[in-house]
Each structure stands twice: as C-alpha cells, then as structure tokens.
C-alpha cells in the first residue's frame, strides 16, 4: 500500500507545538540513466530503486551524523537553549551503529542529556540511558525479528530508515532521476533524486546516495525549495562492512544502574494503560496503523496537509490525574502558543509556525494543520471545515 494514501504526511520530528513535515510525496521510477563516474557502471533510476530495496549485508558498523537546519524562527523558551529540541531543528546528533544480522544490532545515540544505547542480542533487548543510569531489559518472543525503535527523537536513526521512508512515498506526484556519482564516507555511490512535480511544495528534492557495491543508503539529504544546502542530512561519516565482534552485542548494566525487567505482557498492559489515558484526554485512540480520531489528510502527495485536533493545553482549570499526567507537556505547549505570531482571516484565527521546509497552523478552534506548504495553503485548508 502506498504510504501516502494511509499516512500522507511523514512526520520525522514532532516538537511540542507542531509536526515537522520532512517528506510528503513520492512517482513511477523513470528510466533516466545515471551519468556516473567512469569507474562505476551505469545504473538507471529504476535499477537503483531495486538495488536499495533488495540490499542485504551480513554486517556493518559505523558512525552516523544527523544534521538539521529547518529554518525555524526563534521561539522563546523553546529554541536557543542548547537542548535536544534545538539540536533537532538546528543542530546535529551523532550515533554509532553495529549490525550483525536481524537478531544482533546496536545503536548508541549521543545527546545533550547523555547517551542512549539500544542493544538487540538474540532474544534479549536492552535499553540503557546514561542520564540516571537506568536500564530496561526485554525478552523478545519467538518469531519476532524486527529491531526495536532506537531513536528517542523521532528522526531517522540511520540513512536506511530515512531512505525507506522516502522510497515508500513514491507515487505519480514525484519525479525520479539520478545525478551521477558521489562519494560518502570514502565509498563510491550513486545518487538518486526524488523531487515533487507540484511546485507548490516547500520541499525541493530528496537525494539518496546509494553505495555502489553494497546498495545500502549511505546518505539522505532533504532540501527545501531553491536551497543550496540540505535542511536535513542523515549520513554515515565512517562505515565498515566487516561483521562486528559478538562482544559488541553483550550488555552488562554499569555499577549502580537501576534495572527494570519487562515482559511482552507488561509492555502490552502498559500500552493499553496509555491508550486508556489518551482516550480520557483526547477521545477514542486510533486503531493500529491509522491516524488519530478526528484527524484527516487534505490533498495528495507533496502538498498534502495533515489536520488533527490540537492537544489540550489544560487552561480550562480542570484538575485530576489526567491533567497531572499531561501537565508539563500542556504547559510547554501553552507557552509556545503564546509566543507564536497571531494570524487571522476568513478561515478564523490562530498562531503560525513557519520555516523554509514546513508550515504549521494552530487554530483557536482547536485544530493543528501541518504541511510542507506555504501558510496560504494551510489557510485555504483551514477554511474547508
């Protein structure tokens, strides 16, 4: 199923007040031949798509750097404080990765508040956070091979994750081409380009550098329209395709670590509890794989707009356990709202957050509209109640 039909707005980053749309869109693979370096055989865009989707390696390790400059204006109390959110919208994050098969993988993410390690070794999954020296242990049920989500930021942890999201978005609204050869982390690569056919999109193009030999993505760049530098880059800074030593996947909690052991049943119960709490606060939760209740997508492809109910800010003065649970988030959201520019029109009134890559509108009647489009497009959609 085309991801755009079920989830047309790909939200890689979700700050308190708005979802940052990085990719929306997708086109049939063309037959443009890559004008690659003479050292590389020619590959068409269609061939490169097949290569990256069928890539399989026995092992790898490397250093990945994710950088972002989303052109978000300064928001008092939110940006400019050197925190995690600031690094996500205008900064960089570094991670080390090790992979030796579906049941042996590790990623260590360096953040402002410390390091987070996610380790899969057979049935055992460990999540360790240096901040607080806490560790969670989970035993994976038989037959479950999918790697645990590693990124606490919501951004792609690896170029492969970013590329999978981009490739899943391909449909007739996208032009697919190649630009020739590139070099990433000392390796030769082909560059595949996805660009919106609809010029109304704020996204200019998405470029994937694909390893010429192993066919995995080494770098993914997302450009705003008419920009010379990428707004988001996820790239290997160093990579080796040698299979990592088994010791890399063994984890022993550091001295003094607070260890919590969870079973699949406990995780399920925890998920059900959170779903029940969300239902009390925001209404019935969405079924798995579906958008939240009350949300919708207007339009198609790169210029689609995601519309949903805004989170409650808690300004109604109601108390209780639900209010306490979301108190901090609500207070942060309310502060952000007050700092955003006020806008109004025939559609109503609200607050606007805009950048070179996306626009987000929070209306006074309780809606959030997000898209890789201009504010004018959001106003148009807001008027379609």
What do these coordinates show?
- The longest helix is centred in the C-terminal third of the chain and has 19 residues, at 264-282.
- This protein has helices at 3-6, 45-54, 84-90, 159-168, 264-282, 321-325, 327-339, 375-382; strands at 10-13, 20-23, 60-69, 91-99, 104-111, 114-121, 124-129, 134-139, 174-184, 187-196, 203-211, 217-224, 232-240, 258-262, 296-298, 305-309, 342-345, 348-354, 359-363, 367-371.
- The protein contains eight helices and 20 strands.
- A hairpin with a 4-residue loop joins strand 18 (348-354) and strand 19 (359-363).
- The radius of gyration is 22 Å and the shape is globular.
- It has two domains: 3-262, outer membrane lipoprotein receptor (LolB), chain A, CATH 2.50.20.10; 264-382, no CATH class.
- 20% of the residues lie in helices and 35% in strands.
- It is α+β, with helices and mostly antiparallel strands.
- The strands form three sheets. Strands 9-10-11-12-13-3-4-5-6-7-8-14 form a twelve-stranded mixed β-sheet. Strands 15-16-20-19-18-17 form a six-stranded antiparallel β-sheet, with helices on one face. It has a two-stranded antiparallel ribbon with strand order 1-2.
């Amino acid at each position: 199923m085309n991801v755009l039909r079920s989830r047309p707005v790909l939200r890689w980053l979700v700050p308190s007040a708005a979802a940052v749309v990085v990719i929306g869109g997708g086109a049939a693979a063309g037959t443009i031949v890559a004008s690659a370096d003479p050292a590389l055989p020619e590959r068409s865009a269609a061939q490169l798509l097949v290569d990256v989707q069928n890539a399989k390696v026995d092992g790898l390790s490397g250093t990945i750097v994710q950088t972002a400059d989303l052109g978000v204006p300064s928001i008092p109390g939110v940006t400019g404080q050197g925190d995690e959110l600031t690094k996500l919208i205008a900064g960089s994050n570094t991670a080390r990765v090790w992979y030796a098969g579906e049941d042996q993988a590790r990623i260590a993410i360096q953040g402002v508040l410390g390091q987070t390690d996610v380790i899969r070794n057979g049935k055992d999954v460990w999540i360790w956070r240096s901040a607080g020296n806490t560790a969670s242990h989970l035993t994976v049920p038989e037959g479950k091979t999918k790697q645990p989500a590693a990124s606490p930021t919501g951004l792609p942890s690896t170029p492969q994750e970013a590329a999978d999201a981009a490739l899943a978005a391909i449909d007739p609204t996208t032009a697919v081409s190649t630009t020739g050869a590139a070099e990433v982390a000392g390796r030769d690569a082909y560059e595949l380009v996805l660009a919106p056919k609809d010029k109304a999109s704020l996204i200019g193009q998405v470029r994937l550098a694909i390893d010429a030999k192993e066919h995995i993505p080494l770098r993914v760049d997302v450009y705003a329209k008419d920009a010379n530098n990428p707004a988001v880059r996820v790239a290997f800074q160093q990579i080796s395709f040698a299979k990592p030593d088994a010791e890399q996947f063994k984890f022993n909690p550091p001295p003094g670590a607070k260890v919590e052991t969870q079973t699949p049943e406990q995780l399920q119960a925890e998920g059900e509890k959170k779903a029940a709490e969300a239902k009390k606060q925001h209404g019935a939760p969405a079924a798995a794989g579906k958008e939240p209740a009350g949300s919708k997508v207007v339009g198609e492809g790169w210029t689609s707009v995601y519309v949903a109910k805004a989170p409650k800010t808690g300004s109604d003065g109601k108390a209780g356990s639900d209010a306490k649970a979301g108190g901090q988030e609500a207070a942060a959201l309310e502060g952000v709202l007050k700092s955003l520019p006020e806008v109004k029109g025939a559609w109503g009134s609200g607050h606007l957050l805009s950048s070179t890559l996306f626009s987000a509108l929070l209306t006074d009647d309780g809606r959030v509209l997000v898209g890789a489009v201009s504010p004018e497009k959001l106003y148009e959609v807001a008027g379609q109640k």
